[in-house]
Amino acid sequence: MEDLGHILNSVAIPPRVVIAGTHSGCGKTTLTVGIAAALYERGHRVATAKVGPDYIDTGYLTIASGRQSRNLDVFLSSEKMILPLAKRAAGDAEFLIVEGVMGLYDGIGSSMRGSTAHVSKLLYSPVILVVDASSMSLSVSALVNGYIDYDPDVRIGGIILNRVGSTRHESILRDALARCDVPVVGVVPKHSDIVWPSRHLGLIPPVEYRNQVEESVTKLSGIVRDCVDLDTLESIAGSASPVNTKDVAKARRVGDVVVGYASGAAFSFLYADNMERLTEAGATLVPFDPLHDAHLPSGVQGLYLCGGFPEVYAESISANSSFLNDIRSAADDGMPIWAECGGLSLLSRRIDEFEMAGVVDADTTMKSKLVVGYRTAKARLSSFLLDPGESVRGHEFHHTIVEPAGDALAIKSMAPDVQTLHGGFVSESLFASYLHLHMGTDPTLAERFVAAICQKGYPVSR
């Protein structure tokens, strides 16, 4: 569905650097947040982005930089759109700091596609490699040289040693790395007091404990300022190859409607790009919080129910009966509703033993197994978003199952040995599934959603 006709004027991308890790859990999120905050405190205009589809890390990066963070995802948007998306993420910033995903070379399946390394090459950007050095001495040299040599087209410009135990440990590590051609630009000791709270899907979204996050970001900024050579890091970012790209065009304005969207602690999985595409298509966006609002906002004409953690707050949501009644009434009246993942659970009959809106004739149950990964979905039934046979790309990220699963979509994972499954629920006024969709480079779905609301009796702009 991607249309490169949506790309407009050529614009340069500012100095940039990708912060990568040797593996998940090495501390790259913490250090990327600290680097962004430290550069911001230096007086720079700092923009950030996250490789992959993650919602939560971008929340931390947004707080650190004071600017909305974005996602750079090859699968959801394609290789040729990474530079335009990076340009949008950068805006008028002086630096673009990009946090990687998993280990440097870890991509889709056993390939490098979509990996941090892949995106760094698409961005013509140098990489700072974060190494968890807590249990290493001479082996650090073999590890780092392996990452340097694995793909000569990936330019590793510096190393940050994380979780270093002592000055003696630092000296051993530096001696070991003397045989590497890449400089050590930072040595960060263990800091047990910098811990991001987590739960079953990873980090807890910062909206749930913003004051503590801001305090931690301030502390992290100081740690990075003391432990990382920011002058050298800026120089490495400035060495990124000059590159021009084009803007991604706005969605076509198709009407003037009011769309209510779920927000708050239980519903925070929102892409900024999606909200912008809806606004460009003509939607005035009004937030509501299913945890605290007794009713839907007055005057809403469509509902966008994003993902999040409704399962954590199911008892409180269930107790908000007047709000659930409003959701039920809106669905009965034919109001267009688009629900993703947690939004699907809100529409189900119940989450575990707690009653929900009951719009979808299915039940949500928490499970121990995490379901995560990219998906290609082909519409089997007609809806306001997709005609039968049309396909979209998205991702799933949940510890729940909805039973029955629905049969609106034929959903295929990227694993070659996994069979295509059916899932999702649609009607003339409903699109509800586990899929998270990203409209950063293709505004078609936003235009169709707004047009569907207009078709319920609201005028369409010409």
The number of E-state strands comes to: 23
Major β-sheet annotation:
7 strands, parallel
| Cross-sheet strand order for the largest sheet | 4-3-5-2-6-7-8
| CATH C-level name of the largest domain | Alpha Beta
How would the global form be characterised? elongated
CATH topology of the largest domain: Rossmann fold
> Roughly what is the average pLDDT, rounded to an integer?
93
Number of domains: 2
Structural class: alpha/beta
Radius of gyration over C-alpha positions, nearest whole angstrom: 23 Å
Distance between the termini: 23 Å
Count helical runs. 14
| Portion of residues within helices | 25-40%
CATH architecture tag of the largest domain: 3-Layer(aba) Sandwich
β-strand amount? 25-35%
CATH superfamily of the largest domain: P-loop containing nucleotide triphosphate hydrolases
Question: Poorly predicted ranges (pLDDT <50, ≥5 residues)?
Answer: 1-9
Structural account:
The chain has 462 residues and is of the alpha/beta class. The chain folds into 2 domains: 4-246, Rossmann fold, CATH 3.40.50; 250-454, Rossmann fold, CATH 3.40.50.880. Helix content is 30%, strand content 28%. It contains 14 helices and 23 strands. The protein has helices spanning 28-41, 56-65, 74-77, 82-90, 116-122, 139-150, 167-177, 210-227, 230-238, 272-280, 314-319, 321-332, 342-347, 444-454; strands spanning 7-12, 16-21, 46-51, 70-72, 95-103, 127-132, 156-164, 184-189, 198-199, 202-203, 244-248, 257-262, 283-288, 302-305, 337-340, 350-351, 354-355, 363-379, 391-403, 409-413, 421-423, 425-427, 430-433. The strands form 6 sheets. Strands 4-3-5-2-6-7-8 form a 7-stranded parallel beta sheet, sandwiched between helices. Helix 1 (28-41) crosses helix 8. The radius of gyration is 23 Å and the shape is elongated.
